[in-house]
Protein 1
Amino acid sequence: MSGSTPNTPMEFWYNLPYESRQNVYNWMLNLVLAIGLVIVLFPIYWMLATSFIPPTELFSVPNPLVPTNVTLESYTAVLDTDVLLWYRNTVIFAGGVVTLTTVAATLGGYGLARLDIPYKKTFARVILFGYMFPPILLSIPMFIFWRQIGIINSLPGVILAQTATTLPFSLWLMWQFFQTVPYSYEESSRVIGSSRFQAFYEIALPLAKPGMIAVAIFSFAIAWGAYTIPSILLTNSSNWVLTLGLYSFTQAESVLWGQIMAASTLLVLPTFFFVYYLQKYILRGFQATRI
Amino acid sequence: MSIRESLVSGRLYGYRRGLFESLSKRWVFVALTVVPALAVFVFVNLFPMMWAFAAAFFEVGAFQPTWEWTGLENFRLVLNDSRFWDSLRLSIVFAVGSVTLQVIAGTALALLLNRSFSFKRVVRAIALLPYIVPTAVLSFVALWMGNARYGIINQLLVQVGLIQEPLAWYGSLDLAMPSVIVTSSWKFTIFVTIIVLARLQSIPPSIYEAATVSGASKLDRFVDITLPNLKGVLFIVVLLRGVWMFNKYDIIYILTNGGPQNQTMIASIYAYRTAFSDFNLGRAAAVSTLLFMLLIGAAIVYFHYFEPSQEVRVE
């Protein structure tokens, strides 16, 4: 092969030095990755772009890829509606779910890791089964039961209901985390005179912090965008979260796309700031659970 | 762990010292910590489920306060309803289609992200974005982008010349299901990516180095090291995502609401309609119960292959 002049493209290719071939491979893969990123980003970009286009211009075809007349019309129109109320509800709702999930999962995980009870394995399976349980199957029974006992259409109720979807996995994750903390640490602190609660609070809890952060982010990601359970349990629009509120911009004959995109942007924006943490902790969290 | 083992390892703190009192005290504190989680589980998972099982045997209207015993009538009606079986079939089509797409695209993306390239942190953060975009937002953006008259997708495809005239992506009989599959995959591909990426990162680089030294090509290393390491994780991902996509509700509800002409009416939409359009909660409970039984089957398979009490690795 060496020394001869290449006649075919294949020969030419294999006559190239190893490094150049690797470089070409790498750039091809980078190109594929770039195309993937465009697919990931374009819907988000188009949401932003649409929210800044004057609503009247939305129905002129073709639409320019970069908006020419940037305006805040859609945003001012959206702020005239109940969006801020729904936003507040979303914050309360997500905050409630995150708090309830993290506290219950941390306490419960600690308890499970320290208890010597039979059938713990079976219990773990029952818990994890809840993780597989889809919200729609849960929400219809919940609607029937809660209507019966009369706590339908309240924010605390829907917080509790949504927690059913975030708690199983979180509880299991915290359990796994506490199992990696040897009980002897707490035992030694008991020997030098701290109370049981102190041993938990001062020794076990700090060591489980990465797990707690993973749980908080995981439950936040679910609660902030939750739709199914709130849509079935919240019937009164003053109790809606913003994901439900988006529907109010669709009317019988026309859909207010500009306003929907503006409200969507408001909803999505804060979550962008969590992305860096998401990357680090979600990967770490999943790694720890070894799924 | 048996009592004897506990004695040897000293995990039962009080026992070794013969202090039964302190044992029971510890037990009380530890048991109390489990109570909040247990309460949520019982009140929000267990009770409603039992209620639904019970309601499946009754005639329960949305506006009537009393339940009327009907025995197996609800199940008979559901099982004799051809729309129920159609919806099951569509659920399977939707689940298989979207999981296939997600697993292929998700694994590819994870492999691409696991290499070394510039701006790695930023690129990874961008790739994770769909995970946090709420499904409702995604659905509305997709509806807008796929709009038959004004949608950017039609506009771009016509300009490039791939299609002659705008298509109703979510509104035509043939296109609705594929469109819904692709749209849902945009978001949930990232789930596969995250899990596969986590697994990829836990493969020790030394294995690859050793293989390279002994002359293995890129392809050899992929087939002999990467794939076997991913096999287990991919199995779990397919099963989990399969169950979740099978029961998906919100994205289809907003995109097509089961239409056009019930072409995308998957089982969860059927259950919803039975409850809130037909106002027949008893029958909806029967549908839930039937789907729940299917889910148990999946769960048994899941736990057969996945051991939850495995040791955990923490960095």
Protein 2
Amino acid sequence: MRRAVIDLLKAIRAPVAAIALTLVIGFVLVAAITDEPVRAYRDLLLANFDSLGNFALFLNRATPLTLIALGVIFSFRAGVFNVGGEGQLYAGAIAATVIGVSLSSLPAVVLFPLVVVGGILAGAFLGWIPAVLKVRLAVDEVVTTLMLNIIVLLFTSYLANQVIRDPTSYGAVSALLPQKIWLPAFPGVPGATSGIIVAALLAVLSWVALFRTEWGAQLRASGTNLRFATTIGVPADKRIVMAMLLAGGFGGLAGTLYVLGIGHRFEQNFSPNYGLVGLTCALLARIHPIGALATALFYAMIINGAAYMQISTDVPRSLVNLLTGLLVLLMTARLSARARG
Amino acid sequence: MAYVSFLASVLEQSSPIVLAALAAMITLRANILNVAVEGMMLVAAFTAIAVGNASGSAALALLCALVASILMSQLLALMTLRFSADFIVAGLGINLLAAGGSLFALEWFYRSPGGLRPITFPDLWHIPAGTLSYVPVLGPALEGQSVIVVLAFLAVPACSIFLYKTPIGAYLRASGEDEHAARSAGIDVARMKALALAISGLLAGLAGAQISMDKLHFFLPEMTSGRGFIGLAATLFSGGLPWTTAAAAVLFGFFGALGDRLQALAIPSQFVLMLPYLAAILGLTFARWRLHIRNRPARILEPAPASGSSDPQRPKL
């Protein structure tokens, strides 16, 4: 028991240190620009729990982050540096919207699964392209996923502006999805999506799949030592492609649950860079599914908290963007002399 | 003279991409996949406008932009080489820091999150009209281009000479190709990588300054709009050779300029803007596919260990 606690402490020491250091640097910055640094920091960290409404927004923010982080974890564990979360998110959201709006006359029991499966498949397709290019031709997946992000963003912007645009409302948004397929609210918190329950369940399932099944062991072996994996007979290429299909599927599901539970329609540029922040959450959690749930909640807290901080004091909310960059830089740094080698 | 204005627009659009591509190429030769070019460009673009606005001097603005970009590159060098952070993760961190930091500065110092638009702004030096009219075709297209465009196209031979004709360039390449061998030969590999990043910062700084200072004279958040990544693609596409890299970058610039022309037609702007990114993916795939075909006989003779892993040109992540 004591040993398990020590192991856990060892595992979380580095990320906790990175978070603590970032929060300290942030506090120094805040103290330099406002007379009420304590008030600003209290709002940044705790205003999410001031009211039921704030708490609902907090859960809504955490849902896509958790799902994207889980997807990133599958790809990273298989050794694929998937930076395409943002594109996969948008692909899922637009596919879900197009299906939901164009087939809105179908009964909910038929339409709901269609929408969800369509969203997941669209995201998975976007993960499949870089995976196949990597496995077959060794095309660098960092570049392909980054480029696909921009292509998908432009394509969805075209659809939102010219094809599925709702002419009666302001801005590039689609028509509302039929209310019968909206996700029910989180029990006890009106205004919050119950998608967070799905995300939490999937975090546990992902952990089981990755660390308690032979399939997961093979996937991780392909990621850590490809040559060894193929030598002992693991079909590494298949595992890598499967991991990327899952990664894309998780991104697509994040987009689908966003339109079903939070936005209820597709909006151009609806994501404040969930893709990259989700990736950050996964890295911060040392690519561990349960940890990713925790870091996604932490991130949701400070992203929303930044807005409350801006309202109550004069600290701009983009401070959090700056701190995120700093956190990413600090996170992978290894300070011990042993690791420096 | 439609073709002259088109050629001028190709030159103008290519120059930041050429510079970004060279910035990525120099680090790639030191075995670093530099995804931070975009962030360095953004920092330079912002610094150029902020300093130009405050001082009224174009030269000082350009100088400060380059210094800021080099400082960012050295922050990346510090995190990765001293504190062994992963190059890609730290590079993405630099990009976030650049985007967040410039937005924070806009909100805090200028109280305008939308962008920084000085009422007056000092002009960069441009090639005066009429000085090159005796050169056929290229002369008129070059007239009116900023000094950075000229520097961009001088940077290509400069990089080539540096890499292949100077001892330091040879050390840098050696550090990238075989770190252990280079170390046993007495080369300070970490210093060579830091140097590669510094040169990368210089080139990316020029690219960023060109984007904000040449014609626009303002800064918008995200105004580099992925050109750093296009440059990275151009570098990977051409395997890190200076002249081929520049050629690929000009090709992407050509697509950009063509896109602007096509926008006048009925094609939705989003598809036009997609062109360089699609071209990058297709180009990379095609380059890999050719390599794949060329390597095929060897693969039949001795079974390859595993596809998708062994790739000599790819930096170790």
